[in-house]
What we know:
Blueprint: H1 3-7, H2 23-34, H3 37-57, H4 66-98, H5 102-123, H6 132-154, H7 160-185, H8 191-199, H9 203-216, H10 223-279, H11 293-324
Amino acid sequence: MGSSDRDEPLESSSGDTGDRTDLSTRVREWVLIEGDRLFITISLTLATFVLFFTLNELGVVSFVNEGSVTRVASGLIAGTFSLVTLVVSINQLILSQEFATAGEVRSELEGVVEFRRDLEERTDVPASPAAPTRILEVLVEAVHQRAADLETAIDGHDDSALEDRVDRYVASVQTSAERLDETLEKTSFGTFNAVSALIEYDNDRQVYAARFLRGQHASNLSEGQRAAFDDLIETLRLFDIAQEHFKTTYLQRELTRFSQLTIYSGVPAILAAITIGLLYADIGGASVAVRSLPLLVSALIAVVVSPLALLVAYILRTATVTRRTASVGPMLPQKDPDDGPLEVWSDERER
Length: 351
C-alpha cells in the first residue's frame, strides 16, 4: 500500500464545510437545515390542499359519500388530539430540564465561566465574545494560528516523511478553518447559525489525526514540538465543548417554539376536523352545494394536516442536527455511509 493511501485519512473528510454546488445537495440541505420551518410547514399544508383537490378533479377520490367522509373526520379528530398530547408531553420534558437547585445552577454557571476562561487563554483575547458566531470566529482564528505554529515547529525535522505528513495535515486543518470562517462571515448572530456552521466542521477527525501523529512519532519529537501538537489539540477540543453547548441551547429553544406553534395550529386543526364531520350532519346529505365540497373539504383537510406538517418540518431539522453532532471527541461513528472508516493508516499496517 502506497504512502498516499496511508495518509489519505489525514485529509479533510467530505463532511467539512465547503461549497455545495450540486443542486440536489443544496435543496436537501435547505429542506433539512437552512430553510425556514414555517415556510416549509406552509408549503406542506398547501401541497396537501392541492393534492386532495387534484385527486378529486381526476376522479380518484370523492367527497360526496357522507359515510366515508365522516369516518375520515373522526380519525382526523383522534389523530390531532394525539399529536397535541404528544407535543404537550415533549414540552413538559423540556420544562423539566429547566428546573434546577441552586447548586446545579451554580455548577452550570461555573462550567460556562471555565469554558470562557479556557477560550480566552487559548485564543489570547481579553474577554470571550458573547455571541455564539463570534466565539466560533475567535476559535477558528486560534486553530489556524496553532496549526501554523505546529508547521513551524516541525519544519526542518530530520524525518522528512513526518514533516511531509504534518505539512499536509496542517494544510487540511487550515483549509477547513478558512472555509468555516467564510461561512461564519455570511451568517448573522444567533445560536442556530453557530450550530449550522459547526455541523459541517469535522474537528473530531482532526483531533484524532493530530493525536495519532503525536503518538506515533513521540520519540522523534522535541518538547517544543510535542507542545505544539498539544496546543492545537486542546484548541480543537474547545470546538467540541462549544458545539455541545450551542446544540443543547438551540434544541431547547427549537422544541419549545415547536410546542407553542403546535398548540396554536392544533386548535384550528381540531375545529376544522369537527367541521368536516358537521358538513354531512344534515339528514339530507351535505349542508353545502356539492360543487363547493371539493374546495371546502380539501381546505379543511389541509388545516387539519398543518400540525403534522409542523412536526415534519421541525423534526427534520432537529433530528438532522442531532445525528450529525451525535458524538463528542475522536471516538465517533461515521457521519455518512460514503465517508469511509475513521482511521489513520500507520506503517505497521504494511508489515
